[in-house]
Amino acid sequence: MTMNQYDVFVGSYGKATEESIHWLRFNAADGKLIKVASISGVENPSFVTLNHTQNRLYSVSEVENGKIVSFDIDYVTGKLTELNRQSTKGSSPCFVEVHESDQYIFTANYGGENITVHPLGLSGHIDPVSEIKVHSNRGVEVNATSHPHCIRNVPNTNVYTVADLGLNRLFLYEFNEASSELVLINEVEVPVNSGPRHISFHPHLRRLYIVNELNSTILVYSYDGKVENLKWLQTIDTIPWNYEGSNYCADIHVSPSGSYLYASNRGHHSITAYKILEDGKLDCLEQTSTLGEWPRNFAIVPDERYILVANEHTNSIVVMQIRENGSLQETEQIYSVSKPVCLQILRRKE
After folding, report:
1. Integer angstrom CA distances of residue 84 from 15, 41, 89, 111
2. Are 202 and 243 in contact (CB under 8 A)?
3. For the chain, first and last CA: distance in Å?
4. Nearest partner of 133 among 174, 73, 75, 193, judged by Cα
5. Is the pLDDT score of 39 beyond 90?
6. Global pTM?
């Protein structure tokens, strides 16, 4: 029975007194979401992630004096217990990534113009910051302000890629685990007014996909073995050419098999589906309404039969079915939750 069961962790906007971190269970047999638990105590836990052992949950507190919070996950009792919290040394942290060893965690401070590294204890506790990389005052165009929006590990490497929406650049860092240092190895400027926001990678090809918040496009790059150089391959739109309203892209994910890619549109209120071609380039399939407004993050269920979408402005998580050709089909399954903005999903543990 558990093969059809998945745990879903939800980060939302809300006051510290509100239950803004949610633990849901998704049944892939019938497409339904049910509540496991909800907790308060963190203001604006807008991004959550798990370690690779999947026994710790980490959440940002997206406030002026940003924090990162660690929780123990008890799958037997369905409880989340806070372990500790640390300052991120920046404002409005919006993304965290855990090192494959589970010994470090990386944070993008959107309002702090920096990236920070925290060591992690064996118990899951977060140690004080060991490294800060500041992106301000880099001699770029006048009035540009750094806004790092995500940091992602390039698969099977010790390189981390930062999408800086404000500086319109990608930063490539090599992480020295022994010294806890991030060493800059390259900067890549993307097309003007793109606003790179989130990044996804192909599981088999050396391909990097960037969703751009400001011009509603996806950039496709190839990279070499050392990830020192990126080569632009394609720019493709996320919304129809005749759409006249405002739109701000949010999230992007490649399916586990590497067959399809999906991106969310805030304004057009849709998920765009693409077929990934043999060379890693994209062929747009269609846009599908999310039956709500302002779809932020979304999660592909690992069996690739469903996508769960967080509609921030209409307080809902919508279940969408993935057809055999990769396009999406609306379902009648909608789960109500206040201001959801981040979803993390994993197969339920026995």
Report:
1. 18, 12, 16, 23
2. no
3. 10
4. 174
5. yes
6. 0.97
